[in-house]
Each structure stands twice: as C-alpha cells, then as structure tokens.
Specification:
Helices cover 17% and strands 27% of the residues. With 418 residues, the chain is α+β, with helices and mostly antiparallel strands. The protein has 2 domains: 27-118, Roll (SH3 type barrels); 127-415, Alpha-Beta Complex (Fumarylacetoacetate hydrolase, domain 2), CATH 3.90.850.10. Strands 6, 7, 8, 13, 14, 16, 17 and 22 form an 8-stranded mixed sheet that branches. A 5-stranded antiparallel sheet has the order 4-3-2-1-5.
Length: 418
C-alpha cells in the first residue's frame, strides 16, 4: 500500500503531528459533558464520532460510539471500521465537507486533546507477552548465562511468550506504586521480602485482536492481518530482583503482573501498512506454519524518556520496531496453532524491543548493563533502574516521504511502595 501525499486536511496540522490525516486512530475519551465516546484524532484535536454521526455520515447506529470501550466498534469488522476511517479522511479533506461547512457540527465534533481525558481504549480479556527481540534476548542471556549460550535452544524456532495479567493493564497517565515481593540478593542465604529495588521499564508495542475465533481454530501467517485491528505503545514494567528469584521454572509472575501501561490511541494496521520493511533473516529455517510471504516488519521509531521529580525529560533510548525477529503474524499463528481461541480486545505485546546498538536497548537492565554502567541525567544524577517519582514516557511514530503516523505518548510515574 502506497502513501497518498496529495491527501490533505483543511485543518492546520503541524508537520510533526503524530495525528496526520494519514493516521486516523481510534480511542475513547471523556470530559465534563461526556462519560465516554469513541473518538479519532487529527492534529491537536479529538474527533467525537458520536457527534459526527449526528449528520448520518457513517450510516451506523450512533449507540456504538457511546460504549466504554472500542470492542463493540471493532467487532463490526474491518469492512465497516475501515469505511469509517476512510469517511473521516474524506470529510477532513473535501472542499464541500459537511464537517467544514456546518459550524455547529464542527464545534460539537472537534475538541482539543489537552481539554479531554483519554480512557483505556479496549476491554482486555486476555493478555500475552512475547519475547521476540533477538538483540534483547541475547543481551539478557549474556548477562544471566554466558555469551556462548545467550539464546535458549528453542528461541529461533518459535516465538517465546507467556500469558500475563490483563487486569493491571492501564491507560497512559495512570501512576502506580513500586511493587513488593520476595528477592534473593546474592549476599544472603535466605530470601527477603520488601519493595523491589530494581524496577525496570520494557519498551514494547502491542497489537489488538479485531476478530474472534472458536476453540480448535488456528490463524495462519497468511490471514493473520485480518485478525489484527491495530497497535498501541506498551510499557511492561518489570521488577528485576523479584523476577530473578521467581522465574525458574515457570517464568514471570509477581515481577510483571503489578502494572503495564498502554497508549490511548489504537493506530490501525491499515494506517501502518505503508511503513512495512524487511526484518532480520530467520536462520535456521522456521517450520512451515511460521513461514510467511511478503514484507511483514514495520519501521516504527521508538523513543524512551525518563523525567525525575521536578526535573526535565532525558532521552535514554531510541530504538525501532523493525528490530523484531518474530513478526506479529508469526506470533499470532504460533499462539493459535494449538487451537487456542482469541477474542476481540485481546492484547498481545511484542516483548522488549532492543536494537543492536547500546543506545537502542529497550530496558534499563540493558542500558545500564545490570547497573554496572549508570545512565547520567542532565541534572547530574544517575540511574541504574527507575527511582520513585520518576516518570517514563514512550513515544513512537512512522515517517516516510514526509508523512508521519504516530501513536502519541505512553506515560506513567512510579510512586513509592504502599
């Protein structure tokens, strides 16, 4: 799919806005007058789709735009949701658009993003986290094992993943407390209990299921895109000291289930399609059900910022989704190859996204190499891991031919343990 550079909006939109007319993401907002409405975004504005449908532009039941989550809208299917997105683009660009001509409609539909509150975009029934960045897996394996055996024997044969906790996934702007649990420092004989001392970030994205399956059905890499509605930014906060003690033999538990943060805007797969790019060569050859045709990776630029309390943002990482070894299509095919059913709103996270350069590492465990190389901040302080009252912001966007499609921000502040 090629970008159409001639597609222009009649509104004055900054060139560096994540929400160009080529994007048109979906989300849920509230304000003093609205409990929850489905919305889209253009520039600095949200577009209230319930109010817009008062002009019968979509030929849909307006009630679908009053729901607390996007799930029912997504369940309408891509033929409908893509039509809604295309109609919004048409209304934003046409000279004789009812949206531009009708001043009353215009003022009821458009609201400044900084004047509304963005809510959790979907009701997440089930959440899966993958471990699909080869650079990240190699770095972690090198630290906890050795460079010669950094990757486990299965890693290049299947997308490793685990089922996480859906209830503690919260929308950007939701702060949380430092988790507590058991840890086993190297210098003590028995485990101790208390707040995590090694609280980490994980730079991730997540895709949202847009079409349900029945138990026994499998999704192929060929038709996987039909089941992926869109993507969000994702911070899978991790307590490394709790994780080190608990993860053998079954993997993460308390180290991960206390909080994950997602961005509020769901960027559709269709908006991301023009930014497809080649991924890593997969060697050895994968099994037939994981083979795919075409270019399936995505060029999504990702930045992470750390802001101390009363301080300024420090960019601590610049990575890219294109460094993923396993694609979303492979992840979904593997997830369902055994007949596991998926439901609309299910969220599947990428796993930490790290690149080959140290500046592209997607966790503080890697950036500081397990605390041995602290990050120097612009206020003169250092960080090995996240301190109380630090705010972490993830930003992500695609850029091609001066056309930008972005995700906005994924933000949360770490509060002291209760």
């Amino acid at each position: 799919m090629n970008l159409n550079p001639t597609l222009k909006t009649k509104l004055n939109i900054s060139d560096d806005s994540d929400f160009s007319i080529h994007n048109i993401p979906f989300g849920i907002y509230s304000d003093s007058n609205v409990k929850h409405h489905v919305c889209s975004a253009i520039g600095e504005y949200i577009i209230d789709l319930f109010e817009l449908e008062s002009a019968d532009v979509f030929d849909l039941n307006r009630e679908v735009f009053t729901k607390e989550f996007l799930n029912e809208f997504i369940e309408l299917g891509k033929p409908i949701t893509n039509k809604v997105r295309a109609k919004i683009q048409e209304l934003l660009s046409a000279d004789n658009s009812v949206l531009i001509k009708d001043e009353k409609l215009f003022h009821s539909v458009f609201k400044k993003q900084n004047a509304v509150k963005m809510l959790m975009p979907v009701k997440v029934g089930d959440y899966t986290d993958f471990y699909s960045s080869i650079d990240h897996a190699t770095n972690i394996g090198t630290m906890i094992r050795d460079p010669k055996n950094a990757l486990m024997p299965n890693w290049k044969h299947l997308p490793v993943g685990y089922h996480g906790r859906a209830s503690s996934i919260t929308v950007s702007g939701t702060n949380f407390h430092r988790p507590k649990g058991q840890q086993k420092p190297a210098d003590v004989e028995l485990p101790v209990y208390g707040p995590s001392k090694l609280l980490d970030i994980e730079l991730e994205t997540a895709f949202i299921i847009g079409k349900s399956t029945q138990m026994g059905e499998s999704i192929t890499t060929e038709n996987a895109d039909d089941y992926i509605f869109g993507m969000v930014l994702f911070n899978d906060w991790s307590a490394r000291d709790i994780q080190t003690w608990e993860y053998i033999p079954l993997g993460p538990f308390l180290a991960k289930n206390f909080a994950s943060t997602v961005s509020p805007w769901v960027v559709t797969l269709e908006a991301l399609e023009p930014f497809r790019t080649e991924g890593y060569v997969q060697e050895p050859k994968v099994l037939p059900y994981l083979e795919y045709k075409g270019i399936k990776n995505l060029d999504i630029k990702l930045d992470v910022f750390l802001k101390p309390q009363n301080g300024q943002d420090n960019k601590i990482c610049s990575s890219n989704y294109k460094y993923m070894y396993w694609t979303m299509e492979q992840q979904l095919a593997h997830h369902t190859v055994n007949g596991c059913n998926v439901n609309v709103g299910d969220m599947m996270a990428s796993g930490t996204i790290s690149g080959p350069d140290p500046s592209e590492f997607g966790s503080m465990m890697e950036l500081t190499w397990r605390g041995t190389k602290p990050i120097k901040l612009n206020d003169g302080t250092e960080r090995k891991f996240v301190n109380d009252f630090d705010t972490i912001t993830i930003k992500g966007y695609c850029l091609k031919d001066n056309i930008r499609v972005g995700f906005g921000e994924c933000v949360a502040t770490l509060l002291p343990a209760k």
